[in-house]
Amino acid sequence: MSSGIDVDWEYPDNPTDAANFVLLLRAVRAELDAYAAAHARGYHFLLTIASPAGPTHYGTLDLAGLASTIDYFNFMGYDYAGSWDSLAGHQANIYPNPGYAATTPFSTEAALRDYLAAGVPASQIVLGMPLYGRSFANTDGLGQPFKGVGQGSWEAGVWDYKDLPRAGAEVRYDATSQATYSYDAKTGELVSYDTPDMIRRKVDYVKQTGLGGSMFWEASGDKVGDGSLIAASYGALGGIDRSPNWLDYPTSQYANMAKGMSS
Fold it and tell me: Which residues contact 118 (CB under 8 A, 6 or more apart)?
């Protein structure tokens, strides 16, 4: 992946903020281009944003204005459900479940349809996938009330993927929503997370819809070896972006950066 800047503003919540977001990014784009012209032999530095999946948030944005300014939308296709809800649901499903709406308060498909309708090219959207799961404790299953979220790897209710599935839990697949989760009938704990098979299905979706690729949040949560989600995505995509990074910053105040590739 080429060098550049990713901007994460969570979230512009009114028209003024939305307009200022575009202006900010245009200013950053201009500075990146000016630096490239002066010091990087015309190299194109990427400018990307972390973009929301919830209509309340992306509905406020000037998506067309953003699309004409940035290179990619790193679409945050996760956190669709969690501790803030009253019912256990999927946190990273592709599709809604019309027959059981409580399981899918949000969906990737619904959000991306709105992005495309607003003028964002599919090729500019990179589908984000979680390397963690969100848990719901003391529940009878998807779409059912829960009480608490239990423990977690680094935060209550949030388990690194490398710690999943929990001992005694059964991994299940929801074909309608296109989502995976685990459930322990004895303890009543449900954890919504992606498996390698689910990642491969998501990559198929990326290819079928012409999206720009996949990205993950975040790499330390992955497993090593055959269970790796990043490896599953790599294999299904057939490779990764190998555009060279730019490592030469002669005007930097930091000696190691100023030395560039020789450091």
Answer: 63, 64
CATH of 4-130+194-262, one of 3.40.50.360, 3.20.20.80, 3.40.50.450, 2.60.40.10: 3.20.20.80
Instruction: Supply the pLDDT for residue 1.
Output: 59
Neighbours of 195 (CB within 10 A): 22
Work out the average pLDDT over 119-139: 98
Q: Check: CB of residue 211 under 8 Å from CB of residue 179.
A: no
- The answer to whether 218 is a known catalytic residue is no
Would you say 140 and 188 are in contact if contact means Cβ atoms under 8 Å apart?
Answer: yes
Sequence spans of domains, the chain: 4-130+194-262
Q: What is the mean pLDDT of residues 256-260?
A: 82
- Average pLDDT (132-155) is 97
pTM attached to this predicted model: 0.94
Residue 166 has pLDDT above 70, yes or no: yes
What the block records as the tokens of 166 is 């929990």
For residue 217, the cross-strand partners are: 130
Beta bridge partners of 181: 172, 192
End-to-end CA distance of the chain: 20
Catalytic annotation, pick one of 10, 31, 155, 218: 10
**48, 95 Cβ separation under 8 angstroms:** no
Packing angle between helix 196-209 and helix 229-237, nearest 10 degrees? 40
pLDDT, residue 262, reads 41
